[in-house]
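User: Show me a protein chain along with its predicted structure.
Assistant: Here is one chain, sequence first, then structure tokens.
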Amino acid sequence: MPIYWRGAALGTYWNTHDACSSGFTPRDPSMSPSAGRIIAHVSRGLTQSPYVSLSRSYAVALHYALETGTSQPTVHAPGYVYELEINGGSNVQLIDPVQEIAAAAPGPLAAVGYQHDGHPTVLLGVVSPLLAFFLHIPVKQPGVPTGVRLANVSPFIWGLAAALRDSEVLAIGNIPRACVIRREAVY
């Protein structure tokens, strides 16, 4: 059975509420799933959605538990990493955000595509905040001797990169407590 992970940093709902007793619920289960909501959820962290984020990577969940909270976790106020086991009989609907975003991306004949128009290194800036300077490399304009601007990076690129970076899988709706194996304190 596949194992999934979820980090819960200080100051987050799932840090103060134990999903081992309640399972996971999305912030707004009444919202309709859509590619736009997936992109906003995975790339901008907008949790007002019908999704619960999971990762196939313990290291990613650990990073979220330790590095994204309101303060640094300690032994007395830890972050948590949840371990989940989800199988076909659990009635949990999982989707792959990479597949969903790619399927919704405009085709090659669209006036505005999903691609970026910057340097080859622009994706490094999208994937890592530590490399964000790659997003600020001026892009020379053809036929304009002094024309430069910053790269245009589509929301599709942001969503795809974030989902790949975080090894992300999304649950639509609730994840029952029977799927939550354990909660590990980390600091």
